[in-house]
User: Which sequence fits this backbone?
């Protein structure tokens, strides 16, 4: 690599990190949030509960990190094999027709995506076996493999389209393809966010509109109090796979929806469910799905430039199927530090949603009881090591309980009736 190319690579990497840092700062909540009160875990969890959670959650995290490292190693192996098998002289684009290159890239990317699911299968199976052992997973192995096959098929189709689009752009704009690719990736991400609830998610689960009753009345009442147009509220049959409890907001515009796990509706009190719903309404109120699209829009151009420069340093291939492994490896390397900044933004957004929930529901006791129970139900580490918190998209449980205590401490005392 020439010195000028090395400088361009470093400059592109610094620019990508700077763009992500700027996006994190711009999109983080502006309103001040109270600092959580200190929490002693022993006041809320027994030693057995803490030990069980840590014995499960921390090895699961290690398995996940090992899987990511294995994926990167497998991709690196492919890059080396392609580099030896298909040497490219100089820096010129290959002479094969653009149509052939684009079609070849679609097939190559699909094969690469499907093939790279195989090395990590043993680790994924190990993580699932451990979840079965603690009663967290409920799905049969055959159904698990079916879901894995469907997810792999979707990823393969997306990879094929992405590989074809990048190759077409690289042949049309040999040096500046990173800019249209960045714009296309943001547009595709926004479209996927809008369509996933009605196109992809029903492939894996059944969604039922929340029926008439007290819970639905609570949801509508909370939404009215928050001044939020909630769209649809659904129950999802999560229990077919897990005993874990969760809720989330997805979709954009007409597909916007709040989704509650059936395990949440079955296992928790009405007030605890209201606390969770209020949290999700906080995401709707602050347009947090759009905020994630905004983060992608602000970081994509600089990230795509960094991926281009790094892929050129890894492999001399250009505008051809043989360039795709290096591009995929470069994308993984660039996205890793950007993902840490995205997680930091996510934790701030979740803190604000917690604060919104506490203010809207005015039920800190129910908030704390929910957090205590969810640790047992999800076998989640209530206070992971600080070094692991940088990977998390949510604050740890002890901080979330501390936030409820801070709210309770600052809440005006109620007059006796």
Assistant:
């Amino acid at each position: 690599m020439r010195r000028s190319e090395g400088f361009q690579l470093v400059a592109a990497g610094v620019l990508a990190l700077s763009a992500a840092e700027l996006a994190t700062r711009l999109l983080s909540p502006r309103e001040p949030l109270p600092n959580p009160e200190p929490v002693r875990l022993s006041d809320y969890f027994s030693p057995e509960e803490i030990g069980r959670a840590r014995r499960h959650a921390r090895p699961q995290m290690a398995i996940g990190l090992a899987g990511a490292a294995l994926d990167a190693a497998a991709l690196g192996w492919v890059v080396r094999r392609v580099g030896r098998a298909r040497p490219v002289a100089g820096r010129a684009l290959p002479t094969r027709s653009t149509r052939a290159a684009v079609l070849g890239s679609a097939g190559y990317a699909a094969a690469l995506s499907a093939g790279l699911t195989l090395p990590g299968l043993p680790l994924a199976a190990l993580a699932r076996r451990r979840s079965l052992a603690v009663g967290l997973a409920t799905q049969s192995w055959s159904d698990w493999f079916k879901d894995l096959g469907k997810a792999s098929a979707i990823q393969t189709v997306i990879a094929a389209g992405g590989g074809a689009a990048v190759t077409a752009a690289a042949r049309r704009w040999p040096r500046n393809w990173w800019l249209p690719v960045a714009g296309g990736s943001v547009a595709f991400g926004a479209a996927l966010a809008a369509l996933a609830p009605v196109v992809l998610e029903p492939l894996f689960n059944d969604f039922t509109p929340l029926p008439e009753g007290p819970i639905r009345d609570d949801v509508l009442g909370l939404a009215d109090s928050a001044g939020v147009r909630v769209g649809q509220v659904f129950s999802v049959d999560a229990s077919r796979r897990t005993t874990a409890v969760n809720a989330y907001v997805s979709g954009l515009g007409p597909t916007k929806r709040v989704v509650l796990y059936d395990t949440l509706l079955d296992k928790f009190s009405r007030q605890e469910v209201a606390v969770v719903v209020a949290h999700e309404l906080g995401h709707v109120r602050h347009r947090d799905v759009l905020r994630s699209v905004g983060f992608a829009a602000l970081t994509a151009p600089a990230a795509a430039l960094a991926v281009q420069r790094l892929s050129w340093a890894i492999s001399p291939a250009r505008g051809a199927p043989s360039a795709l492994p290096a591009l995929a490896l470069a994308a993984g390397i660039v996205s890793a530090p950007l993902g840490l900044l995205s997680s930091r933004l996510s934790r701030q957004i979740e803190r604000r949603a917690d604060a919104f929930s506490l203010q809207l529901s005015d039920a800190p006791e129910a908030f704390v009881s929910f957090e205590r129970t969810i640790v047992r139900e999800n076998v989640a580490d209530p206070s992971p090591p600080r070094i692991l918190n940088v990977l998390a998209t949510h604050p740890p449980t002890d901080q979330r309980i501390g936030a409820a205590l801070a709210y309770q401490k600052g809440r005006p005392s109620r007059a006796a009736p």
Q: What stands out?
A: Residues 3-410 form one domain. The CA atoms of residues 82 and 224 lie 58 Å apart. The chain is about 70% helix and 5% strand.
